[in-house]
Amino acid sequence: MKYKICRSSVYFFLGMCLFTAKTFAQPVVSLAIDNNIQVNQAFNIEVLVSGVDPKNTVIAFGFAINYDSSWIQNSETVGPNFVNGDLSGVIAPIAAIATSTPPPSGDNILLDTLNFTASAPGSFSFSIATEASNQNEGLFLQSSGLNSEFDLNQTQVVSINAGAAVPLPSANLLFGFGLAGLGLIRSKLNSRYATATDNCG
Predict the structure, then answer these.
(1) Is residue 124 part of a domain?
(2) Mean per-residue pLDDT for 74-91?
(3) Backbone phi, then psi, for 23, in 5-degree steps?
(4) Percentage of the chain with pLDDT > 70?
(5) What are phi and psi of 67, to 5 degrees?
(6) How confident is the model at residue 69 (pLDDT cuts 50, 70, 90)?
(7) Does residue 13 lie in a domain region?
(8) What is the phi/psi pair of residue 158, to 5°?
(9) What is the mean pLDDT of residues 57-65?
(10) Residue 127 reports pLDDT greater than 60
(11) Phi, psi for residue 143 in degrees, rounded to 5
(12) In terms of residue numbers, what domain contains 60?
């Protein structure tokens, strides 16, 4: 009898583990960055999450950002399904709560759009991170009254181009050649006039 009870308990425990794992599968975080970024040109970095099971919903998120000191952060806009706000009194650098009904699930959920301007060319590291000490940071999912939290950690290299030198317009070149030609013709005419005057004298 005891053996049956123990075996039933083990089956129950394993079943709960499988149910929890199935209910809250690990979402995938990605960064979408503009292409061909030039120095002193504004560019966007989008924070996306995919793989949120339709049975689950994103109810909130929060994360810290790390970027090069030569960048200027112009703006930060949460996705259309969220509004800025913290879950508690601890403030996260970027935090939002879902406002859509129902909250979002599925793939390519836009969490946040960050806009920067870089003042120097090169390859730079940009990252988002979840700090364990901040209870507002992470990706918070809900399913059938159960809540679960996942880390939001992602790093990507951003290339900033120096930009090609601005070519002189062909019209300016033609104008310059025209002026040079006129100067040369005038010089020759003046030379001939001076020669003719000397001969007359």
Answers:
(1) yes
(2) 81
(3) -70, -40
(4) 66
(5) -150, 165
(6) very high
(7) no
(8) -115, 125
(9) 93
(10) yes
(11) -150, 115
(12) 25-161
Q: What tokens were used for 59?
A: 């109810």
Co-location of 140 and 62 in the same domain:
yes
Asked if 48 contacts 156 with a C-beta cutoff of 8 angstroms, the reply is no
| CB < 8 Å & 24+ apart, contacts of 82-87 | 82/111, 86/62, 86/136, 87/60, 87/62, 87/135, 87/136, 87/140
Contact call for residues 29 and 154 (beta carbons, < 8 A): yes
31 touches 156 (CB < 8 A): yes
CB atoms within 10 A of CB 121: 15
Quick one: pLDDT at residue 17? 42
Cβ atoms of 29 and 152 within 8 Å: the answer is yes
Instruction: Write out the two tokens for 31.
Output: 């960064």
- Whether 125 and 195 map to the same domain: the answer is no
Domain count, the chain: 2
d(CA 131, CA 133): 5
Q: pTM of the full predicted structure? A: 0.69
Are 76 and 39 members of one domain? yes
CATH of the domain at 133: 2.60.40.680
For residues 84 and 114, the answer to whether their CB atoms sit within 8 Å is no
Token look-up 């499988």 returns: 18
CB neighbour list of residue 86: distance below 8 Å, 6 or more residues apart:
62, 92, 95, 136
For residue 174 the two structure tokens come to: 């033609």
In this prediction, residue 104 has a pLDDT band, given cuts at 50, 70 and 90, of very high
